[in-house]
Amino acid sequence: MAAKLILLCGPSGSGKKTIWSGIINRPKYNAIFSVSMTTRKARKGEKHGDDYFFVTKKQFETAIKKKQFLEHATYIDNYYGTPKAFVIDNLKKNKNVFLEIEMNGALQIMKNFSNKKKMFSIFICPPSITELRKRLMKRHTENKEVIDKRIKQAKWEISKKKMFDYVIINKDVKVSRKQLREILDKELD
């Protein structure tokens, strides 16, 4: 079977990483995680090259000019982008490429990716906006103003969920992880 690009999207705080962590790297999925580039500051425990490539705005803008991204977007005053060469090279090596991505980037890829049969998308949705706000506040990583921006963005993102091939409502992590495994088993069989 030909390798596929797997898009995983959802609002900040929806539980994306909690759900996919430990699943996507199972050998049966023959998948590699695409590390995105960002200008936001690293959170506690995040590592350059593992979680993101953390760069300056000037470095990011240079990469845009050189057309080095499959997609890129601005989210809450920071740039995020997917290095093009990494994705294309791994698909050519018949590796499934797993991409945790924000909404603008996901929409760009869904519109522009040349072979739709080599891609599928999953949206992780919080059970409610109230629950999402609680999750974001529990992180203790951002002030109220940033959380309010994230909530506003989340409402817009949730309005786009029907554009995705699959939607997982993350009420319970165990159930959501099972749903993700079922999707991957079906699509990557």
Present the secondary structure layout.
Blueprint: E1 5-9, H1 16-20, E2 31-33, E3 36-38, E4 52-54, H2 57-65, E5 69-75, E6 78-83, H3 84-92, E7 96-101, H4 103-112, E8 119-125, H5 129-139, H6 144-158, E9 166-169, H7 173-187
Parallel strand pairs: 1-7, 1-8, 2-7, 3-4, 8-9
Antiparallel strand pairs: 3-6, 5-6
Helix pairs in contact: 5-6
Describe the structure.
The chain has 189 residues and is of the alpha/beta class. The protein has a single domain (5-187), classed as P-loop containing nucleotide triphosphate hydrolases (Rossmann fold), CATH 3.40.50.300. The protein has 7 helices and 9 strands. It has helices at 16-20, 57-65, 84-92, 103-112, 129-139, 144-158, 173-187, and strands spanning 5-9, 31-33, 36-38, 52-54, 69-75, 78-83, 96-101, 119-125, 166-169. The protein has a 5-stranded parallel beta sheet, sandwiched between helices. β5 and β6 form a beta hairpin. α5 (129-139) packs antiparallel against α6. The mean pLDDT is 90.
